[in-house]
Task: inverse folding
């Protein structure tokens, strides 16, 4: 048994970042983690391994689609799947070891095992009970399936199974055109799998700016993904080899059954809080399974905090990280704060898709007068040079004050470009402020400036 200032349950991006900040602020800190390696879902079976596979298959796509045009000739590149999976695992291992190093450097104790909270101020790991002035729940989320669908991680898989398939399937049905479905669907489509995405709604990527979603769907269709929209999956029957997916088309209630070697269920995630003992403790929960917290991340029990996917808000690693740092500051007696109106979202396909702030649909709904500055990458020399001129930058600004309200980018490096707008929004900048900043030529960033110019007197290259 040991005594700590803070014990954090879970070493994902929320938990490990919070632990490092707690230690930096002088708090004696421990993290409970039952996985063999640190980093949680994101590092072990989520964001990071999927980015490795997206990177490898992006290059494959480039070889097949664009190399000849650039005068790069040669024998055909083939895929060694086992080697690609090794590369992915090496990337994961490097990062998880990196966190172990950071824990040692910052004097964060790793309590290995699965933890529970038997009483306020206590955390049980194995047979040992440790005490802490404050406890933070950062246990993340798990894939949520559908009624009539049983996941076996072989034929019917979640994103976890999609990272370790024994072979590249010939066909795959992806249920859900959200972030996971499209990222992993892209990976397999580029590897030659016939990918069909079945989505309940009439558009892909719910919540995304409608114009971006439409362009995104067109680009992905060109890349070989097939979409069935307005279709509710009813059941999946897994056989000895492959599975049958039955969906109902919402427009006429007709039922369709399709075969696939593998079915990826990507219909969202739910908070993972099982086994913590929250019910016995009397922790207040929200109807959708999240832990209820106040605006200081504290639950209804004093000294018990929760952050990340286990509470409300977007289920994003960087949102959890920000909350992790903020809660550390609060526990150390400082002022932790997260600006929820400036949290970027990125989909790491090719092209990337990124957004921050309000969508046009949201602004219409609130009745706020706004203006749109749009610039196509077709007018950006750098994007054209690398065959990535399909997308655009769309900036939304207040009609009266010119203050930037949101940005939506589909195009090369969108996930990095968006941060320029995030900084501008944090500082309450106007579109003109952005437009007046000198941007290096030739860069993709010029497209952001051009979109800002388009909010005023007009873009130059459009
Ligand atoms: P999601 O919430 O993004 O998308 C789920 C999709 O499934 C929705 O479009 C929904 O309409 C559809 N759906 C639900 N029931 C259906 C049914 N019966 N038939 C057909 N379609 C149905 O969930 P996803 O992609 O599983 O991702 C989970 C979480 O992980 C998200 O919160 C996401 O933000 C996060 N994530 C973020 C990443 C990133 O930031 N790049 C990468 C991967 C995950």
Result:
């Amino acid at each position: 048994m040991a005594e700590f200032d803070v014990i954090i349950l879970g070493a994902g991006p929320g938990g490990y970042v919070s632990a490092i900040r707690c230690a930096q602020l002088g708090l004696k800190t421990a993290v409970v983690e039952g996985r063999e390696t640190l980093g949680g879902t994101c590092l072990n079976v989520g964001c990071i391994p999927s980015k490795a596979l997206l990177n490898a298959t992006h290059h494959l796509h480039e070889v097949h689609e664009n190399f000849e045009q650039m005068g790069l000739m040669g024998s055909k590149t083939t895929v060694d799947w086992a080697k690609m999976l090794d590369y992915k695992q090496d990337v994961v291992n490097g990062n998880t070891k990196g966190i172990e190093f950071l824990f040692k450097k910052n004097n964060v104790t790793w309590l290995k095992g699965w933890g529970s909270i038997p009483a306020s101020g206590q955390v049980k790991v194995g047979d040992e009970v440790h005490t802490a002035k404050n406890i933070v729940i950062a246990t993340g989320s798990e894939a949520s399936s559908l009624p009539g669908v049983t996941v076996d991680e072989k034929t019917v898989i979640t994103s976890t199974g999609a990272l370790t398939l024994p072979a590249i399937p010939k066909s795959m049905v992806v249920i859900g055109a959200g972030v996971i479905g499209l990222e992993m669907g892209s990976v397999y489509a580029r590897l030659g799998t016939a990918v069909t995405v079945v989505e309940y709604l009439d558009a892909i990527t719910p919540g995304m700016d409608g114009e971006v979603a439409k362009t995104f769907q067109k680009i992905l269709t060109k890349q070989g993904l097939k979409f069935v929209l307005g279709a509710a999956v009813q059941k999946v029957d897994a056989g000895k080899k492959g599975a049958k997916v039955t969906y109902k088309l919402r427009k006429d209630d007709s039922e369709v059954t399709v075969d696939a070697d593998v079915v990826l269920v990507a219909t969202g995630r739910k908070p993972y809080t099982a086994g913590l003992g929250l019910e016995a403790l009397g922790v207040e929960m929200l109807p959708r399974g999240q832990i209820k917290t106040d605006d200081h991340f504290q639950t209804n029990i004093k000294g018990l905090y929760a952050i990340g996917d286990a509470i409300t808000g977007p289920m994003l690693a960087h949102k959890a990280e920000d909350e992790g740092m903020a809660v550390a500051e609060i526990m150390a007696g400082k002022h932790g704060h997260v600006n929820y109106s400036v949290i970027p979202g990125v989909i790491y396909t090719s092209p990337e898709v990124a957004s921050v702030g309000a969508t046009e649909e949201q602004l219409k709904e609130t009745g706020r007068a706004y203006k749109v500055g749009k610039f196509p990458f077709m007018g950006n020399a750098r994007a054209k040079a690398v065959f990535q001129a399909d997308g655009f930058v769309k900036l939304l600004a207040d009609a009266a004050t010119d203050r930037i309200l949101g940005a939506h980018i589909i195009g090369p490096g969108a996930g990095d470009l968006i941060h320029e707008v995030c900084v501008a929004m944090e500082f309450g900048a106007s579109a003109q402020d952005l437009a007046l900043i000198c941007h290096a030529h030739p860069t993709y960033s010029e497209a952001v400036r051009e979109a800002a110019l388009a909010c005023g007197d007009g873009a130059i290259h459009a």
Summary: The first strand starts at residue 3 and ends at 9. The CA atoms of residues 80 and 145 lie 31 Å apart. The mean pLDDT is 97.
